[in-house]
Amino acid sequence: MKPCTKRTRFSFSITRVLLAGLAGGLAEVLWVMAWSAVAPLQATAVAREITRTVLPGMAAAPMAAEIGLIIHLAISLTLGVVFVWALGKSLARHYGGAGILAGSVTLLTLIWTINFLVVLPALNPVFVTLMPSAVTLGSKTLFGLAMGAVLIASPYTLPAAQKLRASG
After folding, report:
1. Which of 83, 86, 48 is nearest to 67 (CA)?
2. Could you tell me which of 68, 66, 33 has the C-alpha nearest to residue 142?
3. Which long-range contacts (CB under 8 A, 24 or more apart) does 30-34 make?
4. What's the pLDDT band for 164 if we cut at 50, 70, 90?
5. 153 — phi, psi (to 5°)?
6. Count of domains in the chain?
7. Which of 90-94, 123-127, 146-150 has the lowest mean pLDDT?
8. Interior/surface letters 73-112, b for 16+ CB within 10 angstroms, e for the rest
9. What is residue 158's predicted lDDT score, i.e. its pLDDT?
10. Which of 32, 34, 79, 158 is the most buried (most CB within 10 A)?
11. Which ranges of 39-63 does DSSP label H, i.e. alpha helix?
12. Is residue 4 in a domain?
């Protein structure tokens, strides 16, 4: 990847970073819901297995699916923060928006690899068998794209857009 020659400033406020993580997590949720609409799988089963993986004692709780969704979204928010802290600012400075997008997709692909080939088979082998590998990899790719897209989206806020409109 070529270094970015155009100096673009990206706003990495905590709000934007958290929204980026949330967007990635919600992209995965929507992907799993879409898959479960065409496959013999209930999306709630995925959420329950998240709970079983992280809080095994809560897996039989009536709210296990909701707990799994909360866990998933908490991890998503954390991934947004970790990405920007560890890589995002440097990628933005050197490669611009393309670097952020490529980096976020690469990070989520690495996370998928570690999760589905090492961690989950040891902690919860059932989780690995819920969906085909291509579907789970697709969900992580969508996470990375959504997170990166929010991070590079136009920094205009409503007040700034109103000022532009008023002056024009």
Report:
1. 48
2. 33
3. 31/135, 31/138, 31/139, 31/142, 32/131, 32/139
4. low
5. -60, 155
6. 1
7. 90-94
8. bebbbebbeebbeebbeebbeebbbebbbebbbebbeebb
9. 46
10. 32
11. 43-54
12. no
8 Å CB contact between 50 and 120: no
CA angle (95 as vertex; 92, 97 as ends), nearest 5: 60
Query: pLDDT tens digits for 59-81?
Result: 999 999 999 999 999 999 999 99
How far is residue 38's CA from residue 18's CA, in Å, rounded to a whole number?
A: 31
Q: Give the integer Cα–Cα distance in Å for 87 and 151.
A: 12
Residue 36 is encoded by which pair of tokens?
A: 């479960």
- What is residue 2's DSSP assignment? P
**By residue range, what is the domain housing residue 21?**
14-153
Amino acid, res. 77: L
Q: Is residue 161 part of a domain?
A: no
Q: Which residue has the tokens 């673009």?
A: 8
In a domain, 93, yes or no: yes
Closest CA to 67 of 85, 92, 94, 44: 44
Q: Is residue 71 part of a domain?
A: yes
